[in-house]
Structure formats: structure tokens, C-alpha cells
Specification:
single chain, about 375 residues
Length: about 375
Amino acid sequence: MSESRSSPIVAPSAVLAVLAVLAVMAVVVLARTFLMPVMLAILLALTFAPIRKWASRRGVPAALTSIALVLALFVAIGVLIFVLAGPVQTYLENAPAIAADVERKLRGVSEAIETVSDAGEELSRVAAGDDQPRGIPPGAPVTGEGEEVVVSTGPGLLTRMAMTAPFVAGQIVFTLVLLYFLLASGDLLQRKLVAVLPNRTDKRRAVEIVQSIESTLSRYFLTVAAINVTLGLAVGMALWAAGMPNPVLFGVMAAVLNFVPYLGAIVGITVTAAIGIVTFDTVGQAALAAGAYFAMTTIEGNFVTPHAVGRNLKLDPLLVFLSVAFWGWAWSFIGMFLAVPMMIAARVICETVPALSPIAAFLSSEGPKPVAARS
């Protein structure tokens, strides 16, 4: 009797929860132009907050520290754009020729594999006593008659990027200005949050959450940034030794893409292999360059980063992959960059609030702790 009465109450609650999740997802996607720089600025402010507090304890005003950090980021972005603009523009202008060259060389490898396969089938038929020829004889020339050439009449990739450059520049400026205000305000927002909470327990918990997020994200970002810079240097030197052009570009690409788990390494290896196929005379040389990139990212992902980051920041790899995929779909590359920090912040909040501890265990790579059996 009681179960039949409670079912009409549970069902609408579940429907409302699903509708609320869908509404939040719709807002996240539709308002991404505004939410992306805001979220990026907030996470950067939380990351740099320990540095600002350290400087404040030594008498440096928060506004001065904030402007120094923002200017450092601005200069770093400007230097990267200045150094990499030339090689990137060259590759974008030659993108159709590069794609055609890669296709041509890979087609030769495919034809060689098919020739070996056909020869194996021919030997098998001869050994079985079947001398009747089948299909195209091995080694027969492949003609290119009848091939159609597709000519694109739309704007090129370089033109489209030039059209979006003002928008990207505006997003960067908005992010840096907002970051300055968040850092320069010091602990004002934290004090306002504490002031509006009703009781002492909630106030203490809010302070613990903010401080834990600041320390965790700062440790994560600074550690991962140092690892990625080292990886970029190693990849750049290895590809320079292998004879790849523009090793600085590939080193920066490796450092930036490595902030995106799994997908970043895949993209980097693919790009390296494609440029290597165009650069070198044989596919084997290109495979060697891509293999060096793959070996370094494998060592970094399986040994260096897990040891440096520590057990406390380990997240479920499946959930990390799904988070990167979702935020990449919603917010493009910035979403993939922010996916892991947002998961870390969510896990810290859930670990601090007892009612949300099951969610923290769900996000963790270790899962819930086993409960001792009662005697």
C-alpha cells in the first residue's frame, strides 16, 4: 500500500531532475561564448590565488601581483603567437598539398600490402592445384583513369581562421581582464560568500572548500604545466634530431595538446606522422618520428604524471575521457582544456560535503572504500 502511494511522488522528481540536467546542458552549449572565458578566468584565478596570497604576506599589494601575473600571461601568449605564426601559416596554406601528398604515399603503401596479399593468395591456389587466375594479377599496374578532382570553391582554412581571429582575440582579452579583477579583489568574494551563509558550520565548510580547491588546482596546474613544458622540450629535441622541420612548433604543440588527456596525444601523433610523411622520402622515417612522440607521451602519461600528481588527484579514466569528449563537443578545445580541472574542483566539493561523498567516490579512480561486514 505504501509503495503504491510513493511511486507517483518519485516519478515526477526523476523527470524534473532529468529536465533540469537537460536545461543546464542547453545553457552550457548556447551560452558558451560567455561561459568559456568566465570559467577559464575563474580556474586561473583559483590556480594563481596561492601565489597572490604568498606575495600579500610579504607586503606586495594584490593589485600589483595581479597585474604582474596577467602581464606575464599576455606576454607569453604574444611570444608564442609571434614565434609560431610563420610556420603555422605555411602549413595552413599548404594544407591541401600536404593532404594530397600523404594520401599518395599511403596509397603506395596500401598497394604494396595488397600486392603481397594477392601474391600470398596466388601461392595458396597454386599449392592447392588451382591454376585458374582470379581477379587482377599481382603487380598489375593501377591506372588513374576516371579519377575525379574535387575543387573547393569556398573560403580556405587560412581565410576562415583570419575571420575568427578578432573573436578569439576578444575572448583572450576578456579572460585576462576578468582574471585581473578576480585576483585583485583578493579574498573579497570569499568573504561575501561566507557572510551570506546562515550558520557557522556552513561558513567553515565554504572556507574549507574554497581553500582546498585553490591549493589542489594550483598544485595540479603548476605540476602539469612543468611536466608539459618538459615534454615539449623533449619532443622538440627528438624531432629535431630526426630531421623534422620546425621542431619548435612541434614542441609547443606537444606541450599544449598534453593538457588534454588522451585526445591531445592522439592528435599530436597524427599531425607528426602526417608532416613526417610529407617531409621524409619513406613512410618508415615518418613512423620513426611519430613513434618517438608516442613513446614520450606514453612514458609521461603512465609514469611521470601519475607519480608527480599523486593519488589524491586520480580520477576515473573512463569518466575523464567522457568529460573531455563532452566539453570538447560543448566548448571546443577550451572545453577539453577545462574538463579535468572542473572534474577536480567537483571532486573536492563532493569530498568536503558529506552528503555528496558518494559522488566523490564515483569520480575517483579507486572507487568507494569497502565497508566492513557486521558480525
